[in-house]
Specification:
This protein is of the alpha/beta class. It has six helices and nine strands, in the order αβαββααβαββαβββ. The site of flavin-adenine dinucleotide has 23 residues, from helix 2 and strand 8.
Length: 227
């Protein structure tokens, strides 16, 4: 093994093969073109196609081959930047808005899974946030999270390796197999006459009053980077 090369393998890409799509070979028209077939692009395309829009998705790799296929796939409303920081910067109302929008996103994913009957190992779980024992932010974050409307409580650590950490437990979090999820959404999009092209790099966008032209060119990436 090459000692200079550290390889990681995503559990999602290792356990599920996403469907393949052709590359774009001709000029086409659409109401909306989305660049990027990760969870953001696929979700956006699914919602627009559900509203009757003619949607095209273009990705330079395979679907889910960017960050999406390499995440921990923890669907969380606990914002990485911390509620205490958001409250300090933007006030309680905005912190509540941010928290509500994150919780709505989880409900939306669950709604889509139920509507499309997607088998993606979706499960509601509790989320834990660990703080070093002397971390002053702990109380600040606990109180700000409550003010923001989060269902949070001080808890024992569920992990022996984190037993010396102060712990916040958040209810209403979730996990799923993210590639199974987006593969089913891709399938639903094509059933609604949406089009998905992979292995196609978008290298320029021309915007005028009449139209937007998305230009594609050389393919840069054909496989997920981690494989
Ligand atoms: C290690 C890690 C763990 C994470 N864990 C979590 C987690 O547990 N929970 C969570 O909510 N978030 C997590 N995140 C963040 C999460 O990965 C991202 O928020 C989410 O997956 C981003 O999805 P996306 O669709 O915006 O981007 P991506 O999945 O990266 O999709 C963007 C796509 O656009 C394509 N693309 C870009 N430019 C072009 C172009 N010019 N032409 C054609 N195609 C193009 C890329 O190839 C890619 O496929 C994690 C991130 C990392 C790095």
């Amino acid at each position: 093994m090459d000692n200079n090369c550290i390889k990681t393998l995503s559990v999602w890409t290792d356990t599920f093969k996403v469907p393949e799509f052709d590359s774009l070979k001709e000029n086409i028209n659409a109401d909306v073109c989305i660049v990027g077939a990760g969870i953001s692009g696929i979700t956006c395309a699914y919602l627009l196609a559900s509203e009757g829009k003619k949607v095209v998705i273009i990705d330079d790799g395979i679907i889910g081959g960017g960050e999406t296929g390499n995440t921990t796939a923890h669907i969380t409303s606990v914002i990485d930047d911390r509620f205490s920081r958001i409250e300090k910067l933007h006030g309680i109302d905005r912190a509540q808005m941010a928290s509500q929008s994150q919780r709505n996103a989880i409900f939306e994913i669950e709604r889509i899974i139920n509507k499309e009957n997607i088998q993606c190992d979706f499960k509601k779980v509790e989320g834990y946030l660990f703080f070093k024992a002397d971390d002053k932010i702990f109380t600040e974050e606990y109180e700000a999270a409550m003010r923001a409307g989060m269902e949070v409580e001080i808890s024992d650590s569920p992990l022996s390796s984190f037993k010396d950490y102060k712990t916040l437990k958040f209810a209403g979090q979730a996990q799923f197999h993210v590639l199974k999820y987006i593969a089913s959404l891709a399938n639903a999009i094509t059933k609604m006459n949406g089009k998905i092209f992979t292995g196609t790099f978008v290298n320029d966008i021309e915007d005028s009053k009449e139209q937007v032209i998305i230009k594609t060119g050389k393919v840069l990436l054909l496989k997920p980077m981690m494989q």
